[in-house]
């Protein structure tokens, strides 16, 4: 059941009514039944995967919780505090490692098993072996990349003592399976999300209205911008003989905007749905195309995935004792700067390799991750020299021209990355690069050629106007302009006027219908 399906919102409306007429203490049960019911309706064949992840990570949390209770009892009666704590920590480490390995193995099997087997067969063929590994044809369970990471964060946080384990399996099942998040996140943390899910949230009409407004903004980004832009990109890339030269980088710019509006639009929709129930999901985007550096871009793009990687991969790896020792050895050997940067560079390389393959079981996704790893590592190495050059050229941080230059450069690098992700494979990436240099046709920017790409001048005008509105809103938000609060301050008439106008715009200018299946890009991950 798609987030753009009318039936989805009919069910949400019914659920809202049932939720708020249910006694407060039992409202979480309504969300639990609805969440798992939605999953069964959307992908019943994959429910065992969700159930297995839920139970295994809950059980790991309970076992670690009981271990902590036992340790506390022993510490009350025994003076060997350090010995007991070390032994308990080892037992909890084995429990958490078991849960992590089990769930990573399941994710790796269903998502990467076919990819691994296919590439192993290529290797066997290259070395002259005549036997082959069977290639499994497994479909990827809905939301597995998101709910696996969300549940593993719970296991790790219980192990670290950041949170207490949840004794009630049903309550924990709601945290893992909360229905708005299942399609494309955001990836929640137990300490921030679970208390909201289990609370007796009271009916608040203003919150319903705010959630509806955010949903409409998401629909605007998805249906008016992303899906319209996707048609233009598909037209350019599927007609290689007609569209060469500057048409190709234009397609990459549109792809960058399309993916952003598609993903962030979907997040706005599910955040709006959750807000109607009194639940605030984690922020997943913060105007990434206004970033002034590549690391800042990744702190603004898919924030919950980046935060997950930072907390559970980057820091543990950067602080890993063997890496620290290697860094000290390099510093003693006279390679002071390399020794200082080695842990960070290694961690960045691993993190972005994982981010890349998290998106999909293809070589292009690994290369995409490494592309950003290389950019960030180059920034670490060359940063001091770039600062000196910038100062020599008079590029002051506080100047708007400097900021604009940096924003443009980061956006250009993001668009270059789309040569990798928008291509079918790495060979296709190379073909797109060749098509870019196959013709020099700057006149298309002024001769009216671009106006026909969307099918008509009016369609192109709608896209440009929508992008202009998105840009204005983004800049205002970046400058601290609280748009939602300003609209609310205008009273109910202003709020409902904005909502009605938004509905009309989405209905009139959205790309939807039987001939336009509206699939979210990150739904496929």
Commentary on this structure:
- By secondary structure, the chain is mainly α.
- The protein has 3 domains: 6-202, no CATH class; 204-281 and 441-525, no CATH class; 290-411, no CATH class.
- It has helices at residues 6-21, 27-43, 47-77, 81-126, 144-160, 169-177, 190-198, 205-237, 247-276, 294-300, 303-318, 321-332, 336-359, 363-392, 400-421, 426-437, 457-478, 483-489, 491-509.
- It is globular, with a radius of gyration of 25 Å.
- The two termini are 16 Å apart.
Proportion of helical residues: over 70%
Radius of gyration: 25 Å
Largest sheet, in brief, is: none
How many individual β-strands?
0
Structural class: mainly alpha
- Listing every helix as H and every strand as E from the N terminus to the C terminus, the arrangement reads HHHHHHHHHHHHHHHHHHH
Strand content: under 5%
Shape: globular
Poorly predicted regions are none
Total domain modules: 3
Give the integer mean of the pLDDT values.
Answer: 91
Total helices: the number is 19
Distance between the first and last residues' Cα: 16 Å
Features:
mainly alpha, globular, 72% helix, 3 domains, 525 residues, 19 helices
Topology:
Blueprint: H1 6-21, H2 27-43, H3 47-77, H4 81-126, H5 144-160, H6 169-177, H7 190-198, H8 205-237, H9 247-276, H10 294-300, H11 303-318, H12 321-332, H13 336-359, H14 363-392, H15 400-421, H16 426-437, H17 457-478, H18 483-489, H19 491-509
């Amino acid at each position: 059941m798609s987030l753009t399906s009318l039936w989805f919102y009919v069910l949400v409306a019914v659920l809202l009514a049932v939720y708020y007429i249910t006694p407060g203490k039992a409202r979480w049960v309504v969300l639990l039944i609805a969440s798992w019911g939605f999953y069964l309706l959307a992908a019943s064949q994959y429910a065992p995967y969700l159930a297995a992840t839920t139970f295994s990570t809950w059980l790991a949390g309970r076992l670690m919780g009981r271990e902590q209770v036992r340790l506390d009892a022993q510490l009350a009666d025994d003076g060997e505090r350090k010995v007991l704590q070390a032994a308990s920590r080892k037992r909890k480490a084995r429990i958490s490692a078991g849960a992590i390995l089990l769930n990573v193995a399941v994710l790796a099997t269903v998502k990467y098993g076919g990819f691994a087997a296919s590439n192993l067969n290529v290797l066997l063929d290259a070395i002259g072996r005549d036997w082959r590994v069977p290639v499994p044809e497994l479909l990827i369970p809905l939301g597995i990349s998101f709910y696996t990471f969300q549940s593993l964060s719970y296991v790790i946080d219980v192990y670290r003592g950041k949170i207490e384990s949840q004794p009630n399996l049903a309550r924990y099942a709601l945290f893992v399976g909360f229905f708005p998040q299942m399609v494309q996140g955001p990836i929640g943390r137990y300490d921030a999300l679970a208390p909201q899910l289990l609370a007796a949230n009271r009916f608040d009409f203003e919150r319903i209205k705010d959630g509806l407004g955010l949903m409409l903004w998401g629909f605007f980004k998805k249906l008016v911008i992303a899906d319209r832009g996707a048609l233009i990109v598909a037209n350019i890339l599927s007609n290689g003989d007609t569209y060469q030269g500057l048409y190709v980088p234009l397609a990459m710019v549109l792809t960058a905007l399309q993916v952003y509006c598609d993903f962030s639009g979907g997040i706005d929709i599910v955040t709006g749905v959750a807000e109607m129930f009194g639940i605030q999901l984690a922020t997943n985007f913060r105007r990434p195309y206004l970033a002034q550096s590549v690391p800042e871009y990744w702190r603004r793009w898919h924030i919950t995935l980046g935060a997950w990687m930072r907390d559970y991969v980057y820091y543990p790896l950067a602080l890993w004792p063997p890496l620290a020792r290697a860094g000290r050895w390099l510093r003693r050997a006279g390679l002071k700067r390399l020794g200082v940067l080695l842990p960070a560079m290694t961690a960045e390389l691993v993190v972005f390799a994982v981010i890349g393959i998290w998106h999909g079981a293809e070589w292009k996704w690994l290369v995409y991750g490494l592309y950003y790893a290389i950019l960030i590592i180059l920034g670490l190495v060359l940063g001091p020299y770039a600062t000196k050059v910038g100062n020599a050229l008079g590029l002051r941080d506080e100047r708007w021209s400097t900021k604009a230059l940096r924003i443009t450069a980061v956006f250009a690098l993001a668009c270059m990355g789309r040569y990798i992700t928008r291509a079918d494979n790495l060979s296709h990436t190379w073909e797109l690069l060749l098509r870019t240099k196959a013709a020099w046709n700057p006149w298309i920017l002024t001769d009216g050629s671009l106006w026909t790409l969307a099918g008509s001048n009016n369609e192109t005008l709608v896209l440009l106007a929508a992008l202009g509105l998105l840009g204005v809103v983004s800049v205002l938000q970046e400058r601290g302009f609280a748009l939602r609060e300003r609209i609310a301050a205008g009273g109910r008439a202003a709020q409902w006027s904005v909502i009605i106008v938004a509905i009309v715009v989405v209905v009139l200018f959205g790309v939807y219908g039987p001939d336009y299946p509206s699939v979210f890009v990150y739904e496929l991950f």
